[in-house]
Amino acid sequence: MNISPLCVISLRVLRWTALAVALTLVMASASQAIQIMGLESPNSFVGDPQGKEYFISNVNGEPDARDNNGFITKLDTDGKVTQLKFIQGGVADVLLHAPKGLALVGKTLYVADLDQLKGFDTETGKLLVTVTFPATSPQRPVSLTDVSSGPDGLLYASDQAGNSIYRIDATADHRVSLLIRDDRLAGPAGIAVHPKTNHVIAVSWNKGTILDISPDGGLTELVSNGFFTGRFQNLSGIDFDRWGNMYVSDFTKGKIWRMTRDQRFQVIAEYLPTPADISIDRASNLILVPYHYAHAAEMNGLEAPSDGKPKGEKRTLADYGFVPPPQKPAPEGPPKK
Q1: pTM across the whole model
Q2: Could you give the CA distance from residue 156 to residue 146 in angstroms, rounded to a whole number?
């Protein structure tokens, strides 16, 4: 995302805050949270569909600088860093300036890097494809913020400064077309493809709105701030869990919200140090959160829906995806006939 200077918060405080984030992510046991330290302005955090490996993009500098020092961190299935600089700008002829949004499609990791979308092999780190987005004018260069994958080989990329979302057809030599350009997008930062409708869902950095974009470019405002309900400020990331619940991160307010399938909003974490482009590991039911100015990231368990659970029954760690449900004790006395 194109981040405005918002902080007079010291980095030292942010780093200590990152260590305490598990206490505020109230949806899971704090002991299960995994913190990843030693990053450099992490922006996006994604995992493969099987939960076997994870990747974090590191801007490592100014978000629009062509300094060729960005890098991608690789982690194993337990969230341990296997290669801090798995892909690195300036090494092995790689050009990587300010990597932001990430998307995994098979063995290809797509990276949004200023005016280019780059695809790398997830095993070797080798560059596989470079997709260029021509600027509409010299005064408005393309600066991609996020990328998301849809069905049928389609990718989508958001241009926050240009109020645009592009469609990329990976099956047709990564042909680029404009899906929508509209000021109502208000700085589209994070994007995700809805798992049921296949519409693109975008969050606005400038106005804190959540928007639905249909395959023909039709725009519908799903959620906005009202006069008395300034719920969101600078929305940065968005994703869905396996049940269709939506999660969004507010970079400035330090919150992560969940919108349930019946359209109720809940704050599931707050007091977070600049949560950026979050994503959901649907296989393991984990939320992946990069903390941009804290130079850290975190993996934490998500609460599973309680459909069918009696209201009086106590929730267990099984509801958070960690341990098998406990066995119910056998009733006392002779069995009923």
Answers
A1: 0.83
A2: 8
